[in-house]
Amino acid sequence: MNAGRFALTSPRPLQVVIPVNLCYSCYKQSTSNLSNGASVGFDFIIVGAGSAGCVLANRLSADPHHRVLLLEAGGSDWNPLFRVPLMTGVLLRSRYANWFYRTEPEPHLNDRQLFWPRGRVLGGSSAINGMVYTRGTRLDYDGWAQMGLPEWSFDKVLPAFMRGESYQPGANAFHGGAGPLPISRPNTPNPLFDAFVAAGQQAGYPFNLDFNGETQEGFGRYDFTTKNGERWSAARAFLGPARQRPNLVIRTDARLLKVIVENGRATGVEILTGRERQSIRAERDIILSCGTVNSPAALMHSGIGDADLLRRHGIPVVRDLKGVGKNLQDHLLARVEHACLEPVTLYSTLRGDRAALALLRAIFLKSGPAASFPLEGGAFFKSDPALDEPDLQSHFLPGLSTAALRLPFLAKASGRYDGHGFFANVYQLRPHSRGEITIGSADPLAAPRIRPNYLSDPADLHVLREGVKALRRVFAQPAFDRFRGPELAPGPDVVTDADIEHWLRGVADTVFHPVGSCRMGTDDLAVVDQHLKVHGIPGLRVVDASIMPRMPSSNTHAPTMMIAERASDFILGEAS
Protein backbone atom coordinates (compact mmCIF):
# COMPACT_ATOMS: atom_id res chain seq x y z
CA MET A 1 0.00 0.00 0.00
CA ASN A 2 1.28 3.48 -0.84
CA ALA A 3 1.60 5.29 2.48
CA GLY A 4 1.45 8.62 0.69
CA ARG A 5 -2.18 7.89 -0.24
CA PHE A 6 -3.16 6.28 3.03
CA ALA A 7 -5.95 7.65 5.20
CA LEU A 8 -7.32 5.82 8.19
CA THR A 9 -11.08 5.49 8.13
CA SER A 10 -13.10 4.45 11.14
CA PRO A 11 -16.26 2.37 10.83
CA ARG A 12 -19.74 3.88 10.92
CA PRO A 13 -21.33 5.78 12.59
CA LEU A 14 -18.10 7.74 13.00
CA GLN A 15 -16.63 8.42 9.55
CA VAL A 16 -13.41 10.39 9.73
CA VAL A 17 -10.97 10.71 6.86
CA ILE A 18 -7.86 12.78 7.53
CA PRO A 19 -6.75 14.63 4.37
CA VAL A 20 -3.40 13.24 3.35
CA ASN A 21 -2.07 16.70 2.50
CA LEU A 22 -2.39 17.58 6.19
CA CYS A 23 0.64 15.48 7.02
CA TYR A 24 2.29 14.74 3.68
CA SER A 25 5.17 17.06 4.48
CA CYS A 26 5.88 15.31 7.78
CA TYR A 27 5.62 11.93 6.02
CA LYS A 28 8.10 13.02 3.38
CA GLN A 29 10.52 14.32 6.00
CA SER A 30 10.28 11.26 8.22
CA THR A 31 11.13 8.85 5.40
CA SER A 32 13.69 10.91 3.53
CA ASN A 33 16.54 8.62 4.60
CA LEU A 34 14.93 5.35 3.49
CA SER A 35 15.91 5.05 -0.14
CA ASN A 36 19.58 4.11 -0.24
CA GLY A 37 19.93 1.80 2.73
CA ALA A 38 21.25 -1.21 0.85
CA SER A 39 24.09 0.56 -0.94
CA VAL A 40 26.28 0.88 2.17
CA GLY A 41 27.56 -1.54 4.75
CA PHE A 42 26.22 -1.75 8.28
CA ASP A 43 27.44 -2.85 11.65
CA PHE A 44 23.97 -3.74 12.92
CA ILE A 45 20.78 -4.67 11.10
CA ILE A 46 17.61 -4.52 13.22
CA VAL A 47 14.58 -6.25 11.72
CA GLY A 48 11.34 -4.81 13.09
CA ALA A 49 10.67 -1.23 14.19
CA GLY A 50 8.36 -2.04 17.08
CA SER A 51 8.67 -1.51 20.81
CA ALA A 52 12.08 -3.21 20.94
CA GLY A 53 13.47 -2.26 17.53
CA CYS A 54 12.94 1.47 18.02
CA VAL A 55 14.75 1.42 21.36
CA LEU A 56 17.65 -0.53 19.85
CA ALA A 57 17.93 1.80 16.87
CA ASN A 58 18.17 4.80 19.17
CA ARG A 59 20.69 3.30 21.57
CA LEU A 60 22.97 1.62 19.02
CA SER A 61 23.10 4.63 16.68
CA ALA A 62 23.96 7.00 19.55
CA ASP A 63 27.59 6.06 18.85
CA PRO A 64 28.35 7.72 15.48
CA HIS A 65 30.84 4.96 14.66
CA HIS A 66 28.03 2.37 14.51
CA ARG A 67 26.23 2.09 11.17
CA VAL A 68 22.69 0.92 11.90
CA LEU A 69 19.93 -0.21 9.53
CA LEU A 70 16.38 -0.49 10.87
CA LEU A 71 13.99 -2.48 8.68
CA GLU A 72 10.20 -2.33 9.05
CA ALA A 73 7.72 -4.44 7.08
CA GLY A 74 5.00 -1.81 7.45
CA GLY A 75 4.82 1.84 6.56
CA SER A 76 5.33 5.17 8.24
CA ASP A 77 3.31 6.37 11.24
CA TRP A 78 2.72 9.78 9.70
CA ASN A 79 -1.08 9.89 10.03
CA PRO A 80 -2.31 12.06 12.95
CA LEU A 81 -4.75 9.34 14.02
CA PHE A 82 -1.78 7.41 15.39
CA ARG A 83 -1.46 10.10 18.06
CA VAL A 84 -5.11 10.15 19.17
CA PRO A 85 -5.47 7.83 22.19
CA LEU A 86 -9.09 6.86 21.57
CA MET A 87 -8.35 5.73 18.01
CA THR A 88 -6.87 2.51 19.36
CA GLY A 89 -9.93 0.56 18.27
CA VAL A 90 -9.73 1.89 14.72
CA LEU A 91 -6.00 1.22 14.53
CA LEU A 92 -6.45 -2.34 15.74
CA ARG A 93 -8.72 -2.91 12.73
CA SER A 94 -6.58 -1.04 10.20
CA ARG A 95 -4.88 -3.31 7.68
CA TYR A 96 -2.35 -0.56 7.01
CA ALA A 97 -0.97 -0.80 10.55
CA ASN A 98 -1.69 -4.40 11.42
CA TRP A 99 -0.69 -7.93 10.43
CA PHE A 100 -4.33 -8.96 11.06
CA TYR A 101 -3.52 -12.45 12.29
CA ARG A 102 -5.97 -15.07 13.48
CA THR A 103 -5.27 -18.10 15.60
CA GLU A 104 -5.92 -21.66 14.61
CA PRO A 105 -9.18 -23.03 16.10
CA GLU A 106 -8.76 -23.16 19.87
CA PRO A 107 -9.88 -26.56 21.23
CA HIS A 108 -10.56 -25.29 24.76
CA LEU A 109 -12.48 -22.23 23.55
CA ASN A 110 -15.15 -24.05 21.55
CA ASP A 111 -12.87 -24.13 18.49
CA ARG A 112 -13.07 -20.37 18.10
CA GLN A 113 -10.41 -18.54 16.08
CA LEU A 114 -9.32 -15.37 17.85
CA PHE A 115 -8.29 -12.14 16.17
CA TRP A 116 -4.64 -11.35 16.97
CA PRO A 117 -3.73 -7.80 15.90
CA ARG A 118 0.03 -7.14 15.78
CA GLY A 119 1.52 -3.82 14.75
CA ARG A 120 2.94 -3.48 11.24
CA VAL A 121 4.03 0.16 11.10
CA LEU A 122 6.81 2.26 12.55
CA GLY A 123 6.33 1.76 16.28
CA GLY A 124 4.87 -1.71 15.85
CA SER A 125 2.24 -2.62 18.42
CA SER A 126 3.14 0.46 20.48
CA ALA A 127 1.49 2.50 17.70
CA ILE A 128 -1.85 0.70 18.06
CA ASN A 129 -1.99 -0.62 21.64
CA GLY A 130 -3.94 0.59 24.68
CA MET A 131 -0.92 2.56 25.98
CA VAL A 132 -1.09 1.09 29.50
CA TYR A 133 2.36 1.13 31.11
CA THR A 134 2.95 -1.57 33.71
CA ARG A 135 6.13 -3.50 34.43
CA GLY A 136 5.43 -6.51 36.59
CA THR A 137 6.93 -7.27 39.98
CA ARG A 138 10.25 -8.06 41.60
CA LEU A 139 9.08 -11.66 41.85
CA ASP A 140 8.71 -11.87 38.06
CA TYR A 141 12.26 -10.86 37.20
CA ASP A 142 13.95 -12.52 40.15
CA GLY A 143 12.15 -15.62 38.91
CA TRP A 144 13.89 -15.21 35.54
CA ALA A 145 17.23 -14.88 37.33
CA GLN A 146 16.56 -18.09 39.22
CA MET A 147 16.21 -19.90 35.88
CA GLY A 148 19.94 -19.45 35.32
CA LEU A 149 19.57 -15.92 33.89
CA PRO A 150 21.25 -13.65 36.47
CA GLU A 151 21.38 -10.67 34.09
CA TRP A 152 17.58 -10.37 34.40
CA SER A 153 17.03 -9.97 38.14
CA PHE A 154 14.79 -7.12 39.27
CA ASP A 155 17.75 -5.10 40.51
CA LYS A 156 19.28 -5.27 37.03
CA VAL A 157 16.15 -4.56 35.01
CA LEU A 158 14.79 -1.68 37.13
CA PRO A 159 17.49 0.77 35.92
CA ALA A 160 16.68 -0.23 32.33
CA PHE A 161 12.98 0.53 32.89
CA MET A 162 13.83 3.88 34.48
CA ARG A 163 16.33 4.90 31.79
CA GLY A 164 13.63 4.99 29.13
CA GLU A 165 11.09 6.96 31.18
CA SER A 166 10.21 10.60 31.43
CA TYR A 167 7.77 10.18 34.28
CA GLN A 168 5.42 13.16 34.23
CA PRO A 169 4.56 13.13 37.97
CA GLY A 170 8.31 13.36 38.65
CA ALA A 171 11.28 11.03 39.04
CA ASN A 172 11.55 8.97 42.21
CA ALA A 173 13.07 5.71 43.44
CA PHE A 174 10.99 3.71 40.94
CA HIS A 175 10.69 6.10 37.99
CA GLY A 176 13.09 7.90 35.70
CA GLY A 177 12.66 11.51 34.68
CA ALA A 178 15.09 12.01 31.80
CA GLY A 179 14.22 9.29 29.29
CA PRO A 180 12.67 9.78 25.85
CA LEU A 181 9.30 8.11 26.62
CA PRO A 182 6.69 10.21 28.47
CA ILE A 183 4.75 8.29 31.12
CA SER A 184 1.69 10.06 32.49
CA ARG A 185 -1.19 9.28 34.79
CA PRO A 186 -4.42 10.69 33.33
CA ASN A 187 -7.08 11.69 35.82
CA THR A 188 -10.23 11.90 33.73
CA PRO A 189 -13.06 13.15 35.95
CA ASN A 190 -15.69 10.43 35.87
CA PRO A 191 -17.55 9.21 38.96
CA LEU A 192 -17.42 5.62 37.71
CA PHE A 193 -13.62 5.53 37.98
CA ASP A 194 -13.90 6.71 41.57
CA ALA A 195 -16.63 4.15 42.25
CA PHE A 196 -14.47 1.32 40.93
CA VAL A 197 -11.52 2.21 43.15
CA ALA A 198 -13.77 2.75 46.18
CA ALA A 199 -15.64 -0.52 45.57
CA GLY A 200 -12.35 -2.38 45.46
CA GLN A 201 -11.49 -1.06 48.90
CA GLN A 202 -14.97 -1.89 50.20
CA ALA A 203 -14.42 -5.45 48.94
CA GLY A 204 -11.26 -5.69 51.03
CA TYR A 205 -8.52 -4.79 48.55
CA PRO A 206 -5.99 -2.02 49.21
CA PHE A 207 -5.74 1.28 47.35
CA ASN A 208 -2.64 1.59 45.18
CA LEU A 209 -1.32 4.96 44.02
CA ASP A 210 1.32 3.48 41.71
CA PHE A 211 1.16 -0.02 40.21
CA ASN A 212 4.82 0.42 39.17
CA GLY A 213 5.94 1.46 42.63
CA GLU A 214 6.89 -0.46 45.73
CA THR A 215 3.97 -2.85 45.51
CA GLN A 216 1.58 -3.87 42.74
CA GLU A 217 -1.48 -5.07 44.64
CA GLY A 218 -4.59 -2.95 44.88
CA PHE A 219 -7.09 -0.76 43.03
CA GLY A 220 -6.10 2.53 41.42
CA ARG A 221 -5.31 4.19 38.09
CA TYR A 222 -2.86 3.13 35.42
CA ASP A 223 0.11 4.94 33.95
CA PHE A 224 -0.01 5.51 30.18
CA THR A 225 2.47 6.22 27.40
CA THR A 226 0.79 9.54 26.66
CA LYS A 227 1.57 13.22 27.10
CA ASN A 228 -0.65 16.27 26.69
CA GLY A 229 -3.47 14.25 25.18
CA GLU A 230 -1.39 12.32 22.63
CA ARG A 231 -0.07 8.78 22.24
CA TRP A 232 3.69 8.38 22.41
CA SER A 233 4.68 5.22 20.58
CA ALA A 234 8.17 3.76 20.71
CA ALA A 235 8.76 5.24 17.25
CA ARG A 236 7.81 8.73 18.33
CA ALA A 237 9.82 8.56 21.55
CA PHE A 238 12.95 6.71 20.43
CA LEU A 239 13.15 7.17 16.65
CA GLY A 240 12.09 10.80 16.76
CA PRO A 241 15.34 12.04 18.35
CA ALA A 242 17.46 9.71 16.19
CA ARG A 243 15.97 10.08 12.69
CA GLN A 244 18.48 12.65 11.48
CA ARG A 245 21.58 10.75 12.56
CA PRO A 246 23.62 10.04 9.43
CA ASN A 247 24.62 6.62 10.74
CA LEU A 248 20.99 5.44 11.10
CA VAL A 249 19.01 4.32 8.07
CA ILE A 250 15.30 3.52 8.51
CA ARG A 251 13.70 1.53 5.73
CA THR A 252 9.96 0.88 5.65
CA ASP A 253 7.96 -1.56 3.50
CA ALA A 254 10.81 -4.08 3.70
CA ARG A 255 9.78 -7.71 4.23
CA LEU A 256 12.33 -10.10 5.68
CA LEU A 257 12.70 -13.27 3.62
CA LYS A 258 15.47 -14.89 5.64
CA VAL A 259 18.59 -14.37 7.68
CA ILE A 260 21.69 -15.25 5.67
CA VAL A 261 23.97 -17.69 7.51
CA GLU A 262 27.42 -18.40 6.07
CA ASN A 263 29.80 -20.92 7.62
CA GLY A 264 27.58 -21.07 10.68
CA ARG A 265 27.51 -17.30 11.27
CA ALA A 266 24.70 -14.81 10.53
CA THR A 267 26.12 -12.31 8.05
CA GLY A 268 23.13 -10.56 6.53
CA VAL A 269 19.48 -10.55 5.57
CA GLU A 270 17.52 -11.08 2.40
CA ILE A 271 14.58 -8.70 2.09
CA LEU A 272 11.79 -7.95 -0.35
CA THR A 273 10.96 -4.33 -1.18
CA GLY A 274 8.18 -4.13 -3.70
CA ARG A 275 9.19 -6.81 -6.21
CA GLU A 276 12.91 -6.45 -5.61
CA ARG A 277 14.94 -8.91 -3.56
CA GLN A 278 18.00 -7.52 -1.86
CA SER A 279 20.74 -8.95 0.31
CA ILE A 280 22.27 -6.66 2.93
CA ARG A 281 25.28 -7.53 5.05
CA ALA A 282 26.10 -6.66 8.65
CA GLU A 283 29.58 -6.68 10.15
CA ARG A 284 28.48 -7.32 13.73
CA ASP A 285 24.92 -8.45 14.54
CA ILE A 286 21.62 -9.26 12.90
CA ILE A 287 18.93 -8.50 15.49
CA LEU A 288 15.43 -9.91 15.07
CA SER A 289 12.86 -7.68 16.77
CA CYS A 290 9.91 -8.94 14.76
CA GLY A 291 7.76 -9.84 17.76
CA THR A 292 6.43 -13.00 19.33
CA VAL A 293 4.69 -14.16 16.14
CA ASN A 294 7.18 -13.16 13.47
CA SER A 295 10.57 -13.69 15.14
CA PRO A 296 10.18 -17.48 15.45
CA ALA A 297 8.73 -17.63 11.94
CA ALA A 298 11.74 -15.68 10.63
CA LEU A 299 14.09 -18.12 12.31
CA MET A 300 12.28 -21.11 10.82
CA HIS A 301 12.33 -19.65 7.31
CA SER A 302 16.06 -19.10 7.81
CA GLY A 303 16.58 -22.78 8.59
CA ILE A 304 16.73 -22.40 12.36
CA GLY A 305 14.18 -24.45 14.26
CA ASP A 306 12.86 -27.97 14.64
CA ALA A 307 14.72 -29.90 11.95
CA ASP A 308 11.81 -32.27 11.32
CA LEU A 309 9.43 -29.36 10.66
CA LEU A 310 11.93 -27.59 8.40
CA ARG A 311 12.57 -30.70 6.32
CA ARG A 312 8.84 -31.29 5.99
CA HIS A 313 8.55 -27.89 4.30
CA GLY A 314 11.71 -28.28 2.23
CA ILE A 315 13.71 -25.68 4.15
CA PRO A 316 17.44 -26.49 4.44
CA VAL A 317 18.35 -27.00 8.09
CA VAL A 318 20.94 -24.54 9.39
CA ARG A 319 20.50 -25.27 13.10
CA ASP A 320 18.23 -27.76 14.82
CA LEU A 321 16.64 -25.71 17.64
CA LYS A 322 13.49 -27.51 18.68
CA GLY A 323 12.35 -24.71 21.01
CA VAL A 324 11.79 -22.16 18.26
CA GLY A 325 8.11 -21.24 18.36
CA LYS A 326 7.41 -23.17 21.57
CA ASN A 327 6.53 -21.76 25.02
CA LEU A 328 3.94 -19.32 23.61
CA GLN A 329 2.00 -17.56 26.38
CA ASP A 330 -0.75 -14.94 26.35
CA HIS A 331 -3.22 -13.30 28.68
CA LEU A 332 -6.87 -14.35 28.27
CA LEU A 333 -9.65 -12.09 29.50
CA ALA A 334 -13.33 -12.10 30.33
CA ARG A 335 -15.65 -9.17 31.11
CA VAL A 336 -18.25 -8.46 33.75
CA GLU A 337 -20.70 -5.88 32.37
CA HIS A 338 -23.54 -3.85 33.85
CA ALA A 339 -26.08 -1.40 32.60
CA CYS A 340 -25.64 2.01 34.22
CA LEU A 341 -28.51 3.89 35.88
CA GLU A 342 -26.98 7.34 35.43
CA PRO A 343 -25.91 8.99 32.13
CA VAL A 344 -22.23 9.29 33.08
CA THR A 345 -20.71 6.80 30.62
CA LEU A 346 -19.13 7.13 27.20
CA TYR A 347 -22.44 6.18 25.57
CA SER A 348 -23.59 9.72 24.86
CA THR A 349 -20.14 11.31 24.66
CA LEU A 350 -18.96 9.21 21.74
CA ARG A 351 -21.96 8.85 19.47
CA GLY A 352 -22.44 10.19 15.97
CA ASP A 353 -21.52 13.83 15.47
CA ARG A 354 -20.21 14.06 19.03
CA ALA A 355 -17.62 11.41 18.24
CA ALA A 356 -16.45 13.30 15.16
CA LEU A 357 -16.15 16.51 17.16
CA ALA A 358 -14.28 14.68 19.91
CA LEU A 359 -11.81 13.36 17.36
CA LEU A 360 -11.22 16.78 15.80
CA ARG A 361 -10.81 18.29 19.24
CA ALA A 362 -8.21 15.66 20.11
CA ILE A 363 -6.27 16.18 16.87
CA PHE A 364 -6.16 19.97 16.97
CA LEU A 365 -6.55 20.87 20.66
CA LYS A 366 -5.14 17.73 22.32
CA SER A 367 -8.10 17.67 24.69
CA GLY A 368 -11.54 16.17 25.18
CA PRO A 369 -12.77 12.57 25.54
CA ALA A 370 -10.75 11.26 22.57
CA ALA A 371 -7.49 12.62 24.02
CA SER A 372 -7.32 9.89 26.64
CA PHE A 373 -7.90 6.15 26.65
CA PRO A 374 -10.79 5.19 28.92
CA LEU A 375 -9.21 2.14 30.59
CA GLU A 376 -7.76 4.31 33.36
CA GLY A 377 -9.18 2.39 36.30
CA GLY A 378 -7.45 -0.84 37.15
CA ALA A 379 -6.54 -3.42 39.73
CA PHE A 380 -4.12 -6.19 40.61
CA PHE A 381 -5.51 -8.71 43.07
CA LYS A 382 -5.29 -12.32 44.25
CA SER A 383 -7.55 -15.23 43.45
CA ASP A 384 -6.39 -16.76 46.75
CA PRO A 385 -5.37 -14.62 49.76
CA ALA A 386 -2.58 -17.10 50.53
CA LEU A 387 -0.67 -16.10 47.38
CA ASP A 388 2.48 -13.99 47.70
CA GLU A 389 1.62 -11.78 44.71
CA PRO A 390 -1.51 -10.86 42.72
CA ASP A 391 -2.37 -13.32 39.99
CA LEU A 392 -5.22 -11.32 38.42
CA GLN A 393 -5.35 -7.97 36.62
CA SER A 394 -8.35 -5.86 35.69
CA HIS A 395 -9.14 -2.79 33.58
CA PHE A 396 -12.30 -0.77 34.16
CA LEU A 397 -14.07 1.22 31.45
CA PRO A 398 -17.02 3.60 32.00
CA GLY A 399 -18.89 2.40 28.94
CA LEU A 400 -19.69 -0.60 26.78
CA SER A 401 -18.80 -1.31 23.19
CA THR A 402 -19.75 1.47 20.78
CA ALA A 403 -19.33 1.68 17.06
CA ALA A 404 -17.28 4.82 17.56
CA LEU A 405 -14.76 2.94 19.69
CA ARG A 406 -14.72 -0.32 17.69
CA LEU A 407 -12.53 -2.05 20.24
CA PRO A 408 -12.54 -5.81 19.57
CA PHE A 409 -12.27 -6.75 23.24
CA LEU A 410 -15.24 -4.50 24.05
CA ALA A 411 -17.59 -6.59 21.95
CA LYS A 412 -20.75 -6.98 23.97
CA ALA A 413 -21.12 -10.42 25.46
CA SER A 414 -24.70 -9.42 26.20
CA GLY A 415 -26.13 -9.30 22.70
CA ARG A 416 -27.69 -6.10 21.38
CA TYR A 417 -27.91 -3.94 24.49
CA ASP A 418 -27.55 -0.31 23.43
CA GLY A 419 -27.31 2.16 26.28
CA HIS A 420 -25.33 3.39 29.24
CA GLY A 421 -23.17 0.77 30.90
CA PHE A 422 -19.78 -0.07 32.31
CA PHE A 423 -17.55 -3.10 32.56
CA ALA A 424 -14.33 -4.48 33.99
CA ASN A 425 -12.26 -7.17 32.40
CA VAL A 426 -10.09 -9.66 34.27
CA TYR A 427 -7.27 -11.97 33.27
CA GLN A 428 -4.82 -14.34 34.86
CA LEU A 429 -1.37 -12.78 35.05
CA ARG A 430 0.81 -15.88 34.88
CA PRO A 431 -1.00 -18.56 32.85
CA HIS A 432 0.24 -22.15 32.87
CA SER A 433 -1.03 -23.02 29.38
CA ARG A 434 1.56 -23.06 26.61
CA GLY A 435 1.08 -22.83 22.88
CA GLU A 436 3.26 -22.50 19.81
CA ILE A 437 4.00 -20.50 16.68
CA THR A 438 4.76 -22.58 13.61
CA ILE A 439 4.81 -22.27 9.84
CA GLY A 440 2.65 -23.99 7.26
CA SER A 441 4.92 -23.77 4.22
CA ALA A 442 8.31 -22.60 2.97
CA ASP A 443 6.82 -19.27 1.86
CA PRO A 444 8.25 -16.54 4.13
CA LEU A 445 5.42 -14.20 3.14
CA ALA A 446 2.72 -16.58 4.37
CA ALA A 447 1.13 -15.91 7.75
CA PRO A 448 2.52 -18.02 10.59
CA ARG A 449 0.24 -20.49 12.33
CA ILE A 450 -0.72 -19.41 15.83
CA ARG A 451 -1.80 -22.00 18.39
CA PRO A 452 -2.07 -20.35 21.83
CA ASN A 453 -3.66 -23.43 23.43
CA TYR A 454 -5.59 -21.28 25.91
CA LEU A 455 -7.02 -23.03 28.99
CA SER A 456 -5.23 -26.27 28.18
CA ASP A 457 -4.08 -26.26 31.80
CA PRO A 458 -7.14 -26.58 34.09
CA ALA A 459 -5.54 -24.24 36.63
CA ASP A 460 -5.97 -21.33 34.20
CA LEU A 461 -9.71 -21.89 33.94
CA HIS A 462 -9.96 -22.03 37.73
CA VAL A 463 -8.12 -18.73 38.25
CA LEU A 464 -10.07 -16.92 35.51
CA ARG A 465 -13.34 -18.17 36.99
CA GLU A 466 -12.33 -16.84 40.40
CA GLY A 467 -11.50 -13.52 38.79
CA VAL A 468 -15.01 -13.23 37.39
CA LYS A 469 -16.47 -14.00 40.81
CA ALA A 470 -14.22 -11.37 42.41
CA LEU A 471 -15.39 -8.68 39.97
CA ARG A 472 -18.99 -9.56 40.71
CA ARG A 473 -18.25 -8.96 44.41
CA VAL A 474 -16.64 -5.61 43.60
CA PHE A 475 -19.62 -4.45 41.56
CA ALA A 476 -21.95 -5.48 44.40
CA GLN A 477 -20.35 -2.97 46.80
CA PRO A 478 -22.14 0.19 48.01
CA ALA A 479 -19.94 2.45 45.86
CA PHE A 480 -21.84 1.20 42.80
CA ASP A 481 -25.35 1.36 44.28
CA ARG A 482 -26.32 4.57 42.46
CA PHE A 483 -24.93 3.32 39.13
CA ARG A 484 -25.53 -0.42 39.07
CA GLY A 485 -28.15 -1.62 36.62
CA PRO A 486 -28.78 -5.23 35.59
CA GLU A 487 -25.76 -7.44 34.97
CA LEU A 488 -25.40 -7.91 31.23
CA ALA A 489 -22.49 -10.36 31.28
CA PRO A 490 -22.07 -13.06 32.37
CA GLY A 491 -25.76 -12.45 33.12
CA PRO A 492 -28.25 -13.65 35.74
CA ASP A 493 -28.42 -17.18 34.33
CA VAL A 494 -24.70 -17.76 34.90
CA VAL A 495 -24.59 -18.75 38.57
CA THR A 496 -22.56 -21.84 39.42
CA ASP A 497 -18.86 -22.45 38.86
CA ALA A 498 -19.78 -24.80 36.03
CA ASP A 499 -21.96 -22.07 34.48
CA ILE A 500 -19.09 -19.58 34.59
CA GLU A 501 -16.62 -22.03 33.09
CA HIS A 502 -19.02 -22.88 30.26
CA TRP A 503 -19.54 -19.16 29.61
CA LEU A 504 -15.80 -18.47 29.64
CA ARG A 505 -15.13 -21.02 26.92
CA GLY A 506 -17.56 -19.17 24.67
CA VAL A 507 -16.47 -15.56 25.26
CA ALA A 508 -12.91 -15.36 26.65
CA ASP A 509 -10.58 -13.42 24.37
CA THR A 510 -6.97 -12.33 24.01
CA VAL A 511 -5.53 -9.25 25.71
CA PHE A 512 -2.93 -9.00 22.90
CA HIS A 513 0.04 -9.88 25.14
CA PRO A 514 1.78 -12.84 23.42
CA VAL A 515 5.29 -13.65 24.65
CA GLY A 516 7.79 -16.46 24.98
CA SER A 517 8.14 -18.11 21.55
CA CYS A 518 11.95 -17.67 21.38
CA ARG A 519 12.57 -18.40 25.02
CA MET A 520 15.71 -17.30 26.82
CA GLY A 521 17.42 -20.04 28.80
CA THR A 522 20.12 -22.67 29.13
CA ASP A 523 18.25 -25.92 28.43
CA ASP A 524 17.72 -27.78 25.16
CA LEU A 525 14.48 -25.94 24.33
CA ALA A 526 15.90 -22.45 24.90
CA VAL A 527 16.41 -20.36 21.76
CA VAL A 528 18.64 -17.55 23.08
CA ASP A 529 21.07 -17.18 25.95
CA GLN A 530 20.84 -14.46 28.60
CA HIS A 531 22.61 -12.02 26.27
CA LEU A 532 19.90 -12.79 23.68
CA LYS A 533 22.25 -14.56 21.26
CA VAL A 534 20.67 -17.40 19.31
CA HIS A 535 22.20 -20.65 20.49
CA GLY A 536 24.72 -21.94 17.97
CA ILE A 537 24.46 -19.03 15.49
CA PRO A 538 27.07 -16.31 16.13
CA GLY A 539 26.06 -12.86 14.94
CA LEU A 540 22.31 -13.41 15.47
CA ARG A 541 20.18 -12.17 18.36
CA VAL A 542 16.47 -12.00 19.13
CA VAL A 543 15.37 -8.93 21.07
CA ASP A 544 11.63 -8.64 21.71
CA ALA A 545 8.83 -10.12 23.84
CA SER A 546 9.42 -13.57 22.37
CA ILE A 547 12.51 -14.10 24.56
CA MET A 548 10.59 -13.94 27.84
CA PRO A 549 10.90 -17.31 29.58
CA ARG A 550 7.79 -16.62 31.63
CA MET A 551 5.17 -13.94 31.25
CA PRO A 552 5.53 -11.00 33.65
CA SER A 553 2.49 -10.00 35.67
CA SER A 554 1.74 -6.92 33.59
CA ASN A 555 0.98 -5.55 30.18
CA THR A 556 3.92 -6.36 27.90
CA HIS A 557 4.88 -3.06 26.21
CA ALA A 558 7.06 -1.76 29.06
CA PRO A 559 8.87 -5.10 29.62
CA THR A 560 9.59 -5.32 25.88
CA MET A 561 11.23 -1.90 25.84
CA MET A 562 13.19 -2.86 28.95
CA ILE A 563 14.45 -5.97 27.13
CA ALA A 564 15.75 -3.75 24.33
CA GLU A 565 17.46 -1.46 26.83
CA ARG A 566 19.22 -4.45 28.40
CA ALA A 567 20.14 -5.80 24.97
CA SER A 568 21.68 -2.48 23.99
CA ASP A 569 23.84 -2.66 27.11
CA PHE A 570 25.05 -6.14 26.14
CA ILE A 571 25.69 -5.22 22.51
CA LEU A 572 27.46 -1.93 23.19
CA GLY A 573 29.51 -3.53 25.93
CA GLU A 574 30.78 -6.15 23.50
CA ALA A 575 31.34 -3.60 20.74
CA SER A 576 33.58 -1.50 22.98
The average pLDDT score comes to: 91
Helix-and-strand structural type: alpha/beta
Radius of gyration: 23 Å
Number of helices: 14
Query: How much helix is in the residues?
Result: 10-25%
CATH homologous superfamily heading of the domain at 31-148 and 235-328 and 514-576: FAD/NAD(P)-binding domain
- Stated plainly, the CATH topology of the domain at 31-148 and 235-328 and 514-576 is called FAD/NAD(P)-binding domain
Query: Total strand count, please?
Result: 26
Shape: globular
Give the terminus-to-terminus CA distance: 41 Å
- Sheet having the most strands: 7 strands, mixed
Multimerization state: single chain
CATH architecture verdict of the domain at 31-148 and 235-328 and 514-576: 3-Layer(bba) Sandwich
Percent in strands: 15-25%
Spans of at least 5 consecutive residues with low confidence = 1-39, 402-414
CATH class of the domain at 31-148 and 235-328 and 514-576: Alpha Beta
Q: Brief overview, please?
A:
The protein has a domain at 31-148 and 235-328 and 514-576: 3-Layer(bba) Sandwich (FAD/NAD(P)-binding domain).
Description:
The chain is α/β, with parallel strands linked by helices and about 575 residues long. It has a domain at about 30-150 and about 235-330 and about 515-575: FAD/NAD(P)-binding domain (3-Layer(bba) Sandwich). Helices cover about 25% and strands about 20% of the residues. Strands 1, 2, 12, 13, 14, 15 and 26 form a 7-stranded mixed β-sheet that branches. Strands 8, 18, 19, 20, 21, 24 and 25 form a 7-stranded antiparallel β-sheet that branches. Strands 3-4 form a two-stranded antiparallel sheet.
